[in-house]
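Proteins fold reproducibly. Look at a sample protein:
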Amino acid sequence: MCQDWVESPAMSKDEADVLILGGGVIGLACAYHLLVQGRSVTILDQGEVGGGSSHGNCGTLTPSHAMPLAMPGVIGTAMRWLLKRDAPLRIAPRFDPALLRWLESFRRRCNWKDFSAATAVKAPLLLRSNALIAELVAREQLDCEYQAIGSLHVYRDRKTLEESSWYARTLAEVGIQVEALAGEQIEAMEPALKPGVFGGYFNPADAQLRPDRFVAELARVVRERGGRIEEHTRIDGISVERGRISTVRTTRGDFSANEVVFALGAWSPALARTIGLRLPIQPGKGYSITYSRPRLCPRLPLTLKEDSVCVTAWGSGFRLGSTMEFAGYDSSLNRARLQALRRSASTYLHEPEGAEMQEEWYGWRPMTPDDLPILGRVHGIDNLCMATGHGMLGVTMSAVTGLLVSEVLAGEKPSIDLAPFNVARFG
């Protein structure tokens, strides 16, 4: 049950029950679940709601991506691609002590033991969240082009497919269904693919939605339920007094609250440092290109495995996306990486682009070295709850994150053990 909250007689308009820092998909999902519990909620966002990595990602909901980025061999691959500006995984050469520390922590986890452990704790989070999103879309009648249709991982190269034998085995070990398919089976399922597919995997537990519409619909429901969303409100600092956050200072005045939820995604580390927290989060830059629908459009979400490109089609459009670039907060649009998306799609698809190019986009994903989110209370700051570091799966993990945060703030036992996700794991 939700704890009762009693308004202080001295409460001003800038005091709240729960203050959520960040208005992306995670912050909005937290707000929704807290409002359902009967809490009052204010969200602060430095831009427009959902304007960050919630906007232009591929919108796939993927328990099939339960495995962490850190796995044996990935560091060697990244080093070989170091000077290749359009590589699927790129680390931009530069001196950055925080990135070097992150990479060393990441490197230590590139072994099968840590890989399996991370997958085992991530999989239940993804499966539960997928079910919660389906329920949320139906209950609130969210207009976001949601479809529970599965996804395909497609390989054109025999050697690459043979080297992926760990994939189906790993998913089976954590209870996620996957079906290995021959090339002709995949081509029959997906006529948009060119001939030459060697094989791949069908992931029946996966789904898709249009992420910008999902976020807009979440914001609508949050407002309808009485949530307050303060856009264009940059956070300049946080004051901690007697083990509690007392004030959040912004460009639109000071805010205070009984509880504070930290849902700032890739922007988390800088603000966390001001209250003595070191969050090992690096901005992993992803890209996408959105088109009108081509005439021969994929029926299912696709991952083109050799080049790590995601293809998603909705009634309202068609998107090529993915790639991972560690280049700090570089705000340039790397055209080599956009061109790589087009080139990869043209290798696999009969019609790799729609007639109208609608948007070229990039966004920063909040990447932790173990590829697990940071969730739960923070020791020493009694009224702070973390909800950040969701990596490439923020949309997929949004609903379960919101549920877990609402349980924590209500003083309930979380429905999923949060120990593996606590910030204290980083020491």
Notes: The longest helix spans residues 112-140.
